[in-house]
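Please predict the structure of the following assembly.
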Amino acid sequence: MNLTIENLTKSFGEKKALDIAHYAIHSGEIIGLVGNNGAGKTTLFRIILDLLKADTGSVTVDGVIDGRNVSCDTAKSESWKSYTGAFVDAGFLIDYLTPEEYFRFIAKISDISDEVLNDRLLQFDGFMNGEVLGQHTLIRNLSMGNKQKVGIIGAMLHYPRLLLLDEPFNFLDPTSQLAMKYLLETYSREQHATVIVSSHNLTHTLDICSRITLLEHGCIIKDYDRDYALLNSEIEEYFKGQQHM
Amino acid sequence: MNLSRAYFLYKALAHNQRLQSRRHPMFEKNRVMKLFSYVFIAFIAAYLSALGVSLYTFFKDTSFEAFDWIDGGMIWFLLADFLLRFFLQETPAQNIKQYKLLNIPTGLMLHTFLCRMGLQPYNLFWAFFFVPFGFLAIPQFYGIVGLIGFLLGWWLIFILNSYWYLFWRTLINRYVPTILIPLLIYALLIYFGLFFDEKNQWLFQAAIRFMRGFIQWNPLGFVFFALAVVPLYYVNYRLQQVAIYVEIAKAEVVKSFKTRNMVFLDKFGIIGEYLKLEIKSTMRNLVVRKQFLIAAGCMLMLCSLFSFSHIYDSLPFMRIFICVYCFNCLGVMTLTTVMCAEGNYIDGLMVHKETVLSLLKAKYYFQCLMLVVPFLFSLMPIMEGKMTWMTALGCLLFTTGVVFPFIFQLAVYNDTSIHLNKKLTRTGRDTKVQMLMSGIAMFLPMFIMWSLVDLWGDQTAAIVMAAIGLLGTLAHPLWLKNIYKRFMQRRYQNMEGFRSSR
């Protein structure tokens, strides 16, 4: 799916949280949104997902789904929801369900049969690492890391063509972080999905993303195509520079 | 101990505790509730003052002085105060957690919290009673100095009671059945001190002597107080030292939950999935479950009273009140906060297509199904011949077709998440719109039914209510769709409110 942002602005009181004149993401790209706290990453995610109203501008999603062209403004239509998956924070989880019940709920409202659900859950087996299913516990009683896993799997269960994950490496142990990287790369490749990931973990983000977008005070200040050696040093230089400011 | 540092700490903690209550999201949000709480306090103050005056009038010409009667009944005041504190007083260990890692000696912090507990304004609460009573009863015998001694004595007694309560409350927090011990102590004291030997009533006599000590400024009275409060303070200090670590290490008791698929609801498609959510939310979340149980308890109590006693037989409005209330109360109690539970995970719902519409439909069907409970309860008055089948049916359909559409409108305006699994009193949760809507939803049907009964009699009134209700019930897809559309128009505002109140 392609995603196009035009003249997007959002302010909270006097503070401008987002100001993007034009930004286009192309089908199949893995985008890494990086920036310090308060840069506007989560605000951008919430506006893309129509969870927050932009002051001006629009977010358009378009592409080919089941052989037909689709296009919609995310604030004006709900059609994008059937091919989009997202996990931003625990506000996405129904925490009085067990993980199994939660996955089944997501499957049912996404029109996925029990057989297909079981098949798909098998693909996340390595990522779950035996700590999510069969625990006989409610989501609210899981550790933060396992809650994160439930949210991420819930977002990917219906094989969305546009996947947005806010800080997906947070709370995960090192093994799960590596599994997460592998999962995102293979998912994007196999499903031809557009993936947008925000993270403070530069190493992981640089490893998996085909493009890195640097946000500061709500503005896109750099947009790098993947050239790993150059990218790595430039981004590190940028954050070092921020440290001295 | 450095006194200036202790005083500084005392002031800082007192300031933080005031901010904690003032900056609670609901405190800021709900000006009406604040006003109500002030009115309630004023009402209690007026009530206690009036009680003080009436009790003086009642006791003044008896064999004892009026103040002796009150002093002698000290155990009743202590028991009432002990029970009231369950709603008002926390243990220091519950408050100290956030300060534990700061560079403040734990002992100093505990002394600060324990002293604050003794000096908290609540210990003056009973002054609303004792000041007017004391003014009338004491000065004529012991002058103003005696009155001051009387009031000071009672204040010290309630400080003592706060430490006594704190001791038991800390133990109860660890192990709930411990509550039986103080209750048993009170029961034994009351029985053996007041009723076992009615001629001597040693507890009554002892309390009179003790309080006379304060009234007459006898140093022994204060010595007795010190002898009681010092060891109690010390025991609490030691107990809280242990309790802090218990509180810090406290984790929610994780019950084992079996995954329940409720496959019998699968045939209803997406609506069935949301019905499962409603059922699981009711079963697994303390706040939702409590609402349900309270409503069921109210229904059962009223239906039983109506059926098996004669107290409401001569009151036509009470009869209508009970009929309508039984069918309304569960819906009104739970739907007043419609969408507030979902506020906790609204983001997850909103990234799926038309989920809120399906959710609203499921909520409506769930509430309709729950009306089986009051319908079963209403069989009692029906069997007793105090209610007709048609009246029960009329009330049921009026609830599903008129009351529910009305109270469901709150789905558009509610924008505060409720904590699903925390103990929360209802007071402080409801906003002014919720209070207004639930008041109308509860009482308007009663007045409508009353008017209809007055105009056409019981049977016709019930038929009219059933007909109106049936129309509203059949039209539910239309009004639910309308609510959904309006919810979507207000979605950004609501989602912001839900997020900020989580």
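The mean pLDDT of chain A is 87. The first strand of chain A starts at residue 2 and ends at 12.
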